[in-house]
Amino acid sequence: MSPRRVVVLGATGSIGQSARRVARSIPGRMEIVGLSAHANSAGLAEASREFPRARAWQSNGPDGADRLIELATLPEADLVLVSIVGTAGLAPALAAIEAGKDIAVASKEILVLAGEIVMSAARRKGVRVLPIDSEHNAIFQCLEGRDPAHVRRLILTCSGGPFRRTPAGELAAVTPEMALRHPTWSMGRKITIDSATLFNKALEMIEARWLFDVGMDRVEVIIHPQSIIHSIVEFVDGSQLAQLSRSDMGFPIQYAVTYPDRVAGSLQPLDLAALGRLEFEAPREDVFPALRLAREAGTIGGTLPAVLNAANEIAVEAFLAGRIPFPRIWETVGAVMQAHAVTAHPDLESLLAADAWARRHAADAITR
Ligand code: MG
Fold this sequence. Notes:
Rossmann fold, 3 domains, globular, 15 helices, 4-stranded mixed β-sheet
């Protein structure tokens, strides 16, 4: 079996680093043929030393967007792993699909904003959209080849973040330092705040809706503080299948690369006896409105998910800069969604326009 030839867009972030680690551990199955980094030139140089035959581009220059498209459509590539933060991953993801390549999606924005466009393009071109988010990868593993008509519910697990037990009245006193202490995953700042507000799970609900083509009413969330079960599929007979592993992004990345095979690499299995127990509880949707806002955005669809995502990004930035208190994050998102006139079945241009509108509107709402 020849190795899958993979382009890693966003090679110096935490997902990119995990992808490089997986590639080093299964060289016979994964060959990195392209790498990009945005601003981290030292990190990109290091990645190039690891994979000297890969093409490597930095994407923060004036022609950065073109460079990303060039990498995403490299003739020698089979699979493009998109782990660029923000909307910058959208155009390369679509270009890769049009070039007939499978994509592995680690950037939430791709499916939250443009799930409808991306999935229909992938169907048209007969390529796979492989989820790298641990929850969606878990669902993908549990579903594997089964008839969607047999599925009753997708149940996304959620660590609950550091404030899952904090009384609602104390959330106004939460500082960025407190929110940045995530109990189980080590991640970037934006996603760590999103885990504390549950907006991370909110975005994942919308992602799941598109990836697996189910209605929002069949996407649910359960709090599971240990982050060992990565998600659950419930079938119409009431049986539930779950996927378990350590909290290591190497698992979803390796599975996406070797799918449908499983190969021995350097990933460490769980020791369940040492763990002892797994806990579950219902999310407090009244205290953390992110889940309700996601259900609304995912049900109405159109430009509304893009607006939720963009308003949240601006609000998180303002919170991290100490400009707004913690609860103002979801208050801002809710207010911007309320003010938005939704466009149904938007094209890419109207999605990006809605994204820009929501950013301006959120920034105004924060300044007022
Ligand atoms: Mg996740």
